[in-house]
Design a protein that fits this description.
- The N terminus and C terminus are likely disordered.
- Strand 6 and strand 7 form a beta hairpin.
- The protein has about 700 residues and is of the alpha+beta class.
- Helix 5 crosses helix 6 and helix 18 packs antiparallel against helix 21.
- The protein folds into 4 domains: about 210 residues, Multidrug efflux transporter AcrB transmembrane domain (Multidrug efflux transporter AcrB transmembrane fold); about 100 residues, Alpha-Beta Plaits (2-Layer Sandwich), CATH 3.30.70; about 200 residues, Multidrug efflux transporter AcrB transmembrane fold, CATH 1.20.1640; about 90 residues.
- The chain contains 22 helices and 8 strands.
- A 4-stranded antiparallel beta sheet has the order 2-3-1-4. A 4-stranded antiparallel beta sheet has the order 6-7-5-8, sandwiched between helices.
């Protein structure tokens, strides 16, 4: 640990450390930003998925970069459109030809005459920002229509524009709210008008440096960096983890200041005792998030690199920069509760009493805690997964409202037709096979190239629903069975055996299937990795297994409890398919942190006092800081709810609830109860070399037997 303890050796070393940290931060800001690689596909899935194969083959079709923005017009009173209304709509939409790529067709009327539909072809060559700007111009131009008409723009370009709008200013909002939450909780924790400013300044600077580093690191490893949700989650994780490490270090530093007159010696002792749990904790989180590199989704792979980079910088800030800043500012930083040599700490009394209560009756306490976890987990029995595109937003944007209006008068899939790709000579047979599938509203030949032709298929059901998924499965089976219908293989994809089905709807379906595959692969892997870290740290088997089991139990409890909130309080229709995996990765990696903080201290104290007294002492000493850290981390993840995407809100609430369960129930009740019940066997097959008198060990053995 000497690399960390030297930074607090004396004033000069501390100043040099601060200056070096500033230099490193400046260097990161001056790093060149590589060109961001193009996404592997719109869904982020590889060429083994049909939707990606279709997307790549569409590049061989004429006007492959054109998508329609759909203008939906109704009367405010929802009555049929009058002749003058129709004339105004035709005139207003024809003026959009300057913004469109090609001609704007005349309006189509619904059978009841209540809804007019106009498809405005738009080029997607310029990227998301250009598409969003064009959609905004279309919406602005349509404000000239009569005031008694409701005009909504939907379709894929409009959804892109509204999603881009969601994240405009999101970084600033997220940073401001997160910093405010952290500042408030640090102020309450330390009850000092000065102390809270130091960790907050270090953590905020680390977060900003981490976000800048992501612009270089993620593209440099060949992964597309989309920003948005990735930067938001990484920002929250860095804030939460770095503050947790700061809380642990400062608590131990304050404890050592009561023993040491020299603050530099106190910091060296604090670093010596906290470096191992912080490195183990950060290493666990890094290993956990890096399992996402095995994900089928490119977004998850970007998240893996982003979070691992952020945690690495958070550990460096907590173990190098923060200690130097604390020793330079001296004891007065803790005013009005300045820790003097020989003074008694006021913290830990509540946790000592709680530990004493648990040690008296560990079996009923553990049983009640387990029943609570099981009860919450049962709340997830009715859990539903899979959000349609119109259900992705907490605040309904115009694209969603327009899609709902369109679905009330036309087949729900009109906004996003499914694309079937085949050979040009097989178009009639494939079109007939597609039209015969139950749930298909229409199937029409579309554009064609020398080797590839597209058929546009409209489904009756709303995209992303169970009915839409069933129709899509049947459609894939039907068109693949047409002899001689297989298009040529797409670059990087498998050779198809028949016609293939893609488009936005099929992409969402494939992404859901990919999420299920990721769950089966990554869940057991992350448990093995976390278990291996705990085995190395605790030099035993039984304690690591028990700790992993408790964290998994809190995950299922938090998932069930959160689903009750989503279903009965917030009215969310379902979980996004990516949420269970991401919540599991973050909860297992972060949840085991608090067990690491507690059990490493218990192991340290057990060497002289035995396991029971060691655990009781650890609970007393670490209770306050771990509880503060857990509440702070939970609050920070809850801040994701300020973004109007349901997926981020769901991740934030599940992780928030899980961290609270880990902090307030698993770590304070379940783990101590298990240690009190098992005694020295808790560390099996390792042994704690302690200074107990043989008679005391005999008494402990007798107590275990009884």
């Amino acid at each position: 640990m000497s690399v960390f303890t030297r930074v607090a050796g004396r004033h000069r070393n501390a100043w040099l450390t601060i200056l070096a940290a500033l230099a490193v931060g400046a260097a990161i800001y001056w790093l060149p930003t590589p060109a961001n690689p193009a996404p592997v596909s719109a869904t982020g899935l590889s060429g083994q998925w049909q939707s990606t194969q279709v997307e790549r083959l569409q590049g061989e079709l004429p006007a492959s970069d054109v998508q329609p923005a759909i203008v939906v017009v109704t009367r405010n009173d929802r009555t049929p459109l009058t002749d003058s209304d129709r004339t105004a709509v035709a005139a207003g939409t024809s003026s959009l030809s300057g913004l469109a790529t090609g001609q704007v067709p005349p309006p189509r009327l619904s059978p009841e005459g209540t809804v007019a539909l106009v498809a405005v072809p738009l080029s997607t060559d310029g990227g998301q920002e250009a598409v969003a700007a064009t959609v905004a111009e279309i919406r602005e131009a349509l404000t000239a229509l009569p005031a008694d008409l409701t005009v909504e723009v939907t379709g894929a370009p409009a959804f892109t524009a509204d999603l881009t709008k969601v994240f405009q200013g999101a970084d600033t909002t997220l940073l401001a709210v997160t910093a405010a939450v952290v500042a408030l909780l640090l102020l309450v924790t330390y009850r000092s008008p000065l102390l809270w400013m130091v960790p907050l300044a270090v953590v905020a600077a680390t977060e900003q440096v981490a976000l800048r580093a992501l612009d270089t690191v993620i593209p440099a490893v060949g992964i597309n960096y989309p920003g948005g949700a990735v930067s938001g989650i990484a920002s929250v994780l860095v804030f939460g983890a770095a503050t947790n490490y700061a809380l642990l270090l400062i608590a131990r530093y304050r404890e050592e200041l009561r023993r040491e007159a020299d603050r530099f010696a106190a910091m060296r002792a604090a670093l010596h005792r906290t470096a191992e749990p912080i490195l183990a904790s950060g290493g666990t989180v890094m290993l956990g998030v890096l399992t996402l590199l095995l994900s089928e989704r490119e977004l998850n792979r970007a998240l893996a690199v982003a979070c691992a980079t952020g945690i690495l910088l958070a550990m460096a800030a907590a173990l190098i920069v923060l200690p130097a800043a604390l020793v330079l500012l001296g004891r007065r930083l803790f005013w009005p509760f300045v820790p003097h040599v020989g003074s008694k700490g006021r913290e830990g009394r509540i946790w000592g009493r709680l530990g004493s209560a648990v040690i008296r009756r560990p079996v009923p306490v553990a049983a009640l805690a387990t029943l609570l976890l099981v009860g919450l987990a049962l709340g997830g029995l009715g859990l539903r997964t899979g959000l349609s595109e119109t259900e992705q937003f907490r605040v309904q944007p115009e694209a969603v409202a327009g899609a709902q209006t369109l679905a009330s008068a036309f087949p729900a899939g009109t906004t996003q037709p499914v694309a079937v790709l085949t050979r040009p000579d097989a178009v009639p047979a494939v079109t007939a096979a597609a039209a015969a599938v139950p749930g298909v509203a229409s199937a029409r030949p579309g554009t064609a190239g020398p080797a590839v032709a597209q058929i546009d298929v409209v489904l009756d059901a709303e995209p992303g629903t169970t009915a839409s998924d069933r129709t899509l499965e049947a459609l894939r089976d039907a068109v693949a069975a047409v002899p001689g219908s297989a298009p040529p293989a797409a670059a990087g994809g498998d050779t198809p055996t028949g016609a293939i089905v893609g488009g936005t709807v099929a992409g969402a379906y494939d992404a859901s299937a990919a999420d299920a595959e990721d769950l089966r692969l990554i869940l057991p892997l992350i448990l093995l990795l976390v278990g291996a870290v705990l085995i190395l740290l605790l030099r035993g088997l039984l304690a690591p297994v028990l700790l992993v089991v408790t964290v998994v139990a809190s995950y299922f409890a938090s998932l069930g409890g959160a689903w009750l909130i989503f279903d009965y309080v917030l009215g969310f229709p379902a979980l996004d398919t990516s949420v269970p995996l991401l919540a599991f990765v973050f909860l297992v990696a972060l949840g085991v942190d608090y067990n690491i903080f507690l059990v490493t201290r218990a192991r340290e104290d057990a060497r002289t006092a035995g396991t029971r007294e060691g655990m009781l002492s650890a609970l007393r000493v670490t209770g306050g800081v771990i509880t503060s850290a857990g509440i702070l981390l939970a609050a920070v993840f809850a801040v994701l709810g300020v973004l109007p995407l349901i997926t981020l809100t769901q991740i934030g609430i599940i992780v928030c609830l899980g961290v609270l369960l880990d902090t307030l129930l698993v770590r304070t009740v379940v783990v101590p109860a298990l240690a009190f019940l098992l005694g020295e066997r808790f560390w099996w097959p390792g042994r704690i070399r302690d200074g107990q008198h043989p008679s005391q060990r005999h008494a402990d053995s007798s107590a275990q037997t009884s």
